[in-house]
Specification:
Layout: E1 5-9, H1 16-30, E2 36-38, H2 54-63, E3 67-72, H3 80-89, E4 98-103, E5 117-119, H4 123-135, H5 153-170, H6 174-178, E6 187-193, H7 194-202, H8 208-219, E7 221-225, H9 229-232, H10 244-254, H11 261-274, E8 286-287, E9 294-305, E10 310-318, H12 328-331, E11 333-334, E12 341-342, H13 353-363, E13 367-371, E14 377-382, H14 383-394, H15 399-402, H16 408-413, H17 415-423, E15 425-429, H18 434-442, E16 449-453, E17 464-467, H19 468-474
Parallel strand pairs: 1-2, 1-3, 3-4, 4-5, 12-13, 15-16
Antiparallel strand pairs: 6-7, 6-10, 8-9, 9-10, 11-17, 13-14, 16-17
Helix pairs in contact: 1-5, 2-3, 4-5, 7-8, 8-11, 18-19
Amino acid sequence: MSEPTLFISHKHSGRDPRIAKVLASFCEERTNAAIKIHLSSNPAFEGPRFGKDLNAQLRRALWDTDVLILIYTASDQDWSYCMWECGVANDSQSPETKIIVFQCGSDCPAPFKDVLRVNVRSLEDIKAFTNQFLRDADFFPSRNEAIAPKLSDALVDSAASQLFENIRRELPEPADVEAQARPTWPYLRIELPKSEVNRMIQATEAERVAVSHQIVKEFGIIAETDSRAPSLFGLSGFTTRMKFDELLTIWQGKNPNADASWFDSCCEQIMMGAGLGFPVIRWTPIRDAGGDSDYTPVLSRIKPMPFSGTVQFDIYFYNLSDPRAVPVTAKMIALEDFFYKKLGQVDPQTLKLLDLEEEFATRKLNRMPILSSEGHPMYIVHRSMVAQFIVDQVKEPGGAANIPNLTLASLLANEEMKEMFQNTFVVVKRQATLAEAKSAMITRPGCGDVFVTANGNRNEPVQGWLTNVDIARNA
């Protein structure tokens, strides 16, 4: 009786050789070395020898192979050589070879979707394989009898459990295996006929925008999406190959008074991208159905599909208004754009409070920053507190007559007022986000203002200013 051959095909990287060795050791032990096992990654088993043509050796081994087991881990590896081994073993001119795929994750090789596959994470699959390996007479075509036909069910189950546990120890955690590549933001893949894309490109400059809108509306199909995109439009899902224009119609029906410029932006970006230009990303957000966030469409990828005669355009919807990402510099009032008093330019001893109060009224201000002569933040003076201080002075003996003499220095001489003006603002660096500015305000009781400096220090010139109203509106 000829000695049957088991060929274990696998990658020589990562965990793959260890999984292959577990299987080879199991097969050798359970057959009492009655079969020849070809395992190129381990010198304890049959494999190519140095000094000889590698492919020639492999061809001879594969030609005589009874059973080839492919250890298939994940599609992110290069399987070309393993596929070549399977192809040689399955040559129609060679003796019969049985091919079995040991599938270690959710991926399986496309050419072998219909071939016997063993899910190594399933004990039942391992039991079925072990039973056939040991007790089926036709498992090894050249042997014509089973390895251990009289082995009891209990012993087969015990052997299978051992193989299952030994392989399991070499596998990554299931969560790591099942983690799939996914888009990080909602997206739509819009598909257009190549002929229409060409027509869009060939349109004159004057016609291009109108032609592009018409083409996208008439021919644009949602070819693919992710699970989150429908919720942006208040839907649980999209119908198969829904027209992009139909999605617009549904959205407008749900939002009759909302601005649909996001759709126009999509059309214009497709037009620019089709002509190999850089799309112009406009601030044309769509408010998600929950009303919590704004998402701006951005064309990020174009892929021609020559066999189907189409072109695909991937449009991602980014939340560019998230306060965790929006820098304070994008929303702050720049120094040159807000009114302030600067010591050195004004003298607290001569600046009359009545004049200051009148300036508040004329400029319609409720608060005013006061900076040092170097431009560092010193105080936030509130109109209501100035008025309260004047009223309090009237209550003092002879206070009413002294009102015209009250100055900014008089106000700051009041320790309670001075402390409040000094401690109701915070300072952040210009790289800070709105969310960070808001967090800084929360940590200081009564804080209503944020100054922006280069490094977030009080002894630096002010570059910008945010009020609590600005923060609430944007964060």
